[in-house]
Amino acid sequence: MTINKIYDIKNNQVVIDLPNSFKGKKKVKISISEVKQSKKDKIELMKKAFKDEKFLKDLKDVNDDFANIDNENWK
User: Fold this and answer.
1) What is the per-residue pLDDT across 43-66, written as a single tens digit (0 to 9) for each?
2) DSSP assignments along 5-66, one per residue
3) Model's pTM, two decimal places?
């Protein structure tokens, strides 16, 4: 099971209550990433995305997948 959730930092600590499905488990993997919160930071990330070849290819692929649907005539 994978859970992605944003937690608040208090006194340089993060407290995580695990779901009941984790009872009896011996180990978990935790990755920590900074969350960019300001609108300016988010806009900068979007600008970087539009220079990212993989992102642009994915965007084109999704657009191509829906191209035929957009041209259908609904009755």
Assistant:
1) 888 899 889 999 999 999 999 888
2) -----BTTB---PPPGGGTT---------PPP-SHHHHHHHHHHHTT-HHHHHHHHHHHHHH
3) 0.41
